[in-house]
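note to self — DONT lose this again. spent like an hour looking for the file last time. sequence + predicted structure for the chain T wanted, 650 res
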Amino acid sequence: MNGFYDVLKRNSVLFGIFSINTFILLFVYIILALNVLEIAEQFLLDQRLSIIPMKGTKGIAPELKLIELNANYANSLTIDVVKTLEKSGDNLLGVLVFSDLSFSDFSKVNDFPKNIVFFRPFDEIQLEKNKIPKLIWNPAIFDPRIIENSGFTYSTTGVDGIYRFIQLLAIDSVNGQLITSLEIQLLEKYYNLKFYGIEKRWYGQFLILADSNKERVLRIPITSDGKMLVNLVMKDFDILKKQKKISELGYILRPEILEKQKKKLILLGIPKYGEPHLVPNGRISDFLFKANAVNTLINGNYIFRPNVFVQFLYVLLFYIFSLSISEWMISTKKDTDEIHYISRRYNILLKTFVYGLILIGFHIIFSQTLLSVFHISLDFLSPLIFILGYIISVGLYLDYYQRRNIMVDLKMKEAYLNMTASVRHEFKNRIRSMTSPIRQIKRRLDDGVISDERLKDEIAKNIDQAIQQAQEAVDLIDRQLDYLREIPLDETGDIKDVMEDALDVLNIEFEENGTKTKVNIPDNLPEIQMNRLKLRDAFYNILKNAHEAMPEGGELSIDITQQKKDIRSVIVEITDTGIGIPKDKQPLIFQPFFTTKSKGLGMGLAIVKNIITAHKGSINFKSKEGIGTTFTIILPEYIKEKNDDINTDL
């Protein structure tokens, strides 16, 4: 990770991407914290479950039995049915009575079985976001004789009006104690367990039921406000509705009917009481919705939704992925040039889009697998928003950066052309003014001014060398200032001679400051297609920089090898033990007009890179301050065409 921060410090492009991603991450965190997308998340959850159901999800529990009372006779029939069920005693696993009758209406029932629980009406439920609600009981409806077998039941909905949750916990406004709903009380009787409170973990919280020794523990995932997501048995709604209705007392009193209720969990209620609930796949009565809630508890068809912290960690995973991808595409390329060059060569905008799609695909597969196999529902939209934000914003940012760099390049090229015209003119004038008196001296020598032939020949030789060097200086400045012109590759040959020519020019300077040179150039290197003068200039520039990096002397190594695997090529490595290149300057050394020296135009390495690129090769480097620098040049081997060997002479 320290390497990433080092790259971040010296690469303005990656820092920009890091800033954009961080801003998008904070934006997504706010969305998660404020629960802005809850309605859309629930809608998508419904759709995902309808497409790919959860593995191992059971239908209607065989123990579950619904007795639907005719709404017209509900008040009179409820008491009679309860009295009849009372006779079954322990043969029934449990009975849940949904009724708004007062407790005084049950005075005709002598001994209530322990496995029967009653709905206890309340006046108000005080809902608070992310907090367990308080219940205010109706003081007119109270009977201590059956209070232990009573409780509340409450179906909850989101602001979209769709019912998906059942309230399992509430706080008694009278004594401030935590109480459980009728559905949980029925489950306690079914499993012979007791409510032990709430277990809070870093990833979520659970309602705990356990036996007295806590050997059997049942954990029910709940939200922070004590609700459970009901796993609706969508395809079985019709089956639930086809359960036989008990509209006449005589029917349920028949012995064969009572016999069928043994070892059953009976839900007793009114099927069409109140308005039908709007659920994801239609409308059902409140009675059938609560039946689905009980069925979810009995079968263990829970859907666990982790808390905001876990959801944020999941988005953070994509944040790390996106930064890693960006660093890989920008900062860890062998070519250390800035983004405008990389984008032209590797098409970084397209790569950002493609890798963004890969992240989206990973998110869809991973989240759906968790839901289908492990019944864990991660937020679907928040990671999607982050990834799409990454693709769009980073794409636009890189596009802007590339456009800006193109404009900078154009301005630099224009300035360069103006400068080179002036420099070329002035330089040639100086050379001509310098060579003119030398040529005059040469003519005087030819006229016989000096009689000593030996001295005359020596002076003439030195003058010829001076004139030749002056002409080479003119040719050199022409080549150097032709940075923007196309470089023709007009011959093929061995680069050994080219490197030796460049080294010969600097040998005297290396000897003067005590630099030791180690040259390892084998014979019979493969030929490359080249421009000999330009390639010599490129080698000369690198060797000259190495000399300047070792003012007190050092060691210079030149190794040339042949690569036969993959693309056949010649590899040139030039290593010095100089001062090295500072980390913050390394991404900039190939840019025109960039220099760390007090003198010079800063064109040397830009020209080198231009020459090597024209030879269809590549150049990169490794450098550590105080240790030295290694430049590696790879030039492709020249492959003869078949037509090259054909004699075209007639």
